[in-house]
Automatic annotation (TrEMBL):
PANTHER family: RIBULOSE BISPHOSPHATE CARBOXYLASE (PTHR42704), RIBULOSE BISPHOSPHATE CARBOXYLASE LARGE CHAIN (PTHR42704:SF17)
Name of the protein: Ribulose-1,5-bisphosphate carboxylase/oxygenase large subunit
Record-level Gene Ontology MF annotations: magnesium ion binding; ribulose-bisphosphate carboxylase activity
Domain Ribulose bisphosphate carboxylase large subunit C-terminal: 2-70
Keyword set includes Plastid: yes
Source species: Punctaria mageshimensis
Pfam families according to UniProt: RuBisCO_large (PF00016)
Gene transcribed to yield this protein: rbcL
Cross-referenced Gene3D superfamilies: Ribulose bisphosphate carboxylase, large subunit, C-terminal domain
Alphabetical UniProt keywords: Chloroplast, Plastid
Amino acid sequence: VVGKLEGDPLMVRGFYNTLLLTELKINLAEGIFFDMDWASLRKCVPVASGGIHCGQMHQLLYYLGDDVVL
């Protein structure tokens, strides 16, 4: 997506939604191939790490939302 993040923007958003949401519906574009209900499992905080360039942070926030650790 941006920098060293691998995959297209929709696929990366699907990975992040898997961490953030407690229930997911099928969304093939985002790589979610079956319904997922995480029941009472706690949510995770997505972390975009690994040499983020400060000039690309606005792009990461656009794709991943503002509830991510940069």
